[in-house]
């Protein structure tokens, strides 16, 4: 739990958009893993096995909850932690851009949000994603391509300057 807990919590949080639900999903993951540890054929694949359980727990939660809520940037920032302090102006623009990107990711349907999260936030390869999701690599590639296309379209719904600031009447969110 100490080794993979933060990784799984971040993954669940990005998929579910809710800290409490993410914590519950991770707790369920470790309980399931405890009872089914005998099914883990290769101990070197523990992280991938746990990730697959966590993703499945997130899917189960999404089937039973209303997930039309969006995260505020403050909640995301407090969860992910801070990088070294940029200057005030740089931080302002970074926060706005991150907020819009988070909003755009959360507007994706679950399958595409899952692919984007695992690939970009968790830095899994296409092969690792296919193994953990129980699908083939071409399916993963297609989900990533469609997810990127949808993100681009969502982002372009609003006009943004080079710092990520919204301008004009069409805005995201």
TrEMBL record:
CDD domains: Sigma70_r4. Signal peptide: none annotated. Residues 99-151 form the RNA polymerase sigma factor 70 region 4 type domain. Residues 4-64 form the RNA polymerase sigma-70 region domain. Keywords: Sigma factor, Transcription, Transcription regulation. It comes from the Bacteria. One of its GO terms (biological process) is DNA-templated transcription initiation. SUPFAM superfamilies: Sigma2 domain of RNA polymerase sigma factors (SSF88946), Sigma3 and sigma4 domains of RNA polymerase sigma factors (SSF88659). GO terms for molecular function: DNA binding; sigma factor activity. InterPro entries: RNA_pol_sigma-70-like, RNA_pol_sigma-70_dom, RNA_pol_sigma70_r2, RNA_pol_sigma70_r4_t2, RNA_pol_sigma_r2, RNA_pol_sigma_r3/r4-like, WH-like_DNA-bd_sf. Belongs to the sigma-70 factor family. ECF subfamily. This is Sigma-70 family RNA polymerase sigma factor. The lineage of its organism: Bacteria, Bacillati, Bacillota, Bacilli, Bacillales.
